[in-house]
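agent> call fold_tool(seq_1)
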Amino acid sequence: MRLILIRHGQTPSNLKHLLDTAAPGPGLTPLGQEQAAALPEVLAGEGIDALYVSTLVRTRLTAAPLAAATGLEPRVREGLREVVAGELEMRGDEEAAALYLSTALAWSAGDTGRRMPGGEDGAAALGRFDAVVAEAAESGAGTVAMVSHGAMIRTWVAARADNVDAGYAAAHPLANTGVVVLDGSPGRGWRVLLWEGRPLGPEGDSAEDAGPAGEPLPGH
């Protein structure tokens, strides 16, 4: 299965660097609406068979132009929502952002028992996303698009893809409507083909290109 993971368009909370993960969440800014409107052209050659979105408003608004262009009905799934910030909710300081992202990426590195302060642990977060991916794979769809959230996408991909690790995900934040394309299945595993348009080779480039921790603020 070809799996296309898309971060939602820009929100007012993104502009303020707030950890805004609660439902229903904010809508899109005017720029976010433009970003969403551009997705059908960006993904025109993909031949998408199924479209999934999280329960948060911003993913449904982002997917709307793509749904209209493809004629697909978005399937709303709780499992695709952002990593829950818990006690860090609506904080915008660097300390909170660093703790949020470091906790999520620790899950990618295997420490799934670690818990977000006042929130979920890695087993729960990755498990709920896994369940939606498994549902999509079992549907028989060849190409599936899922509109989700920055930290959740980076965390899940780094945990499940053979050629991307937590270091790479930390060093490569996803922009609004940034796209990660994978190939594989829940049974045989996943490989990242493209990370925001950047091809990843057979071994990826995480080892030599991880660099510093990257932007500390999460892509929520």
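agent> call fold_tool(seq_2)
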Amino acid sequence: MGLDPDVLDGAPVPVRVTTPAPAPSAGSLAALLVLADGRFPAGGHAHSGGAEAAVKAGRIHDARSLEEFCRGRLHTTGLTAAALAAAAAAGVDPLALDDAADARTPAPALRAAARRLGRQLLRAARATWPSPELDALAAARPRGAHQPVVLGLAARAAGLGPPDAALAAGHETVSGSTTAAVRLLGLDPFDATAVLARLAPELDHVAARAAEAARRALGEGPDALPAASAPLLDLMAEQHAAWPVRLFAS
């Protein structure tokens, strides 16, 4: 069985979503594709988003259980990450957002992974879209800021808006796990891609919620952002970090 989003977030997750997708900023579609491309050198290929531990525990064993797992991630940690990214793209103080990300990431293993990914993404983003804001974040957080915050600031440097940053963050939340499942289970890549396609309406919905939360955060600060949790992911991350041999870093 995959992760149950009702258990993780404490609230029912809509399966049929009618919320329209947030429109990308004018003239920014190409930049959004670059940022969301799995081949962008940001280090995400080395991380499974909890999928490796879930496979070992038997929670992911086929395309259906992979979809359940990804749905749980999307509506919990994915929503939180998308909101942090959208807020950074909107212009909320990235250092305050980094502190907020720390508070929303109780597992030390996940905090460390988020900062490693953030450091690598910051290097790639500064080379791709040079920006004083990215330089300032690198100077303030030499050991790395949380990846969603860096993603949002990179989106801002690329001329993207909060809805774009939210979509990129949400997509990364589920695409990393599906790619990892192909390697871990020998899953048919066609089936894994179909999982992403079926989750697309829910991803649009999560991105719209995240962008709205970012709009509120401009006036109210990071406390206006969601703090959806996934305790089982936290527990599995700590167990995974202690494995002597593993295929993925997290």
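agent> summarizing second result for user.
Confidence is low (pLDDT under 50) at residues 1-27. The chain is about 65% helix and 0% strand.
agent> awaiting next instruction.
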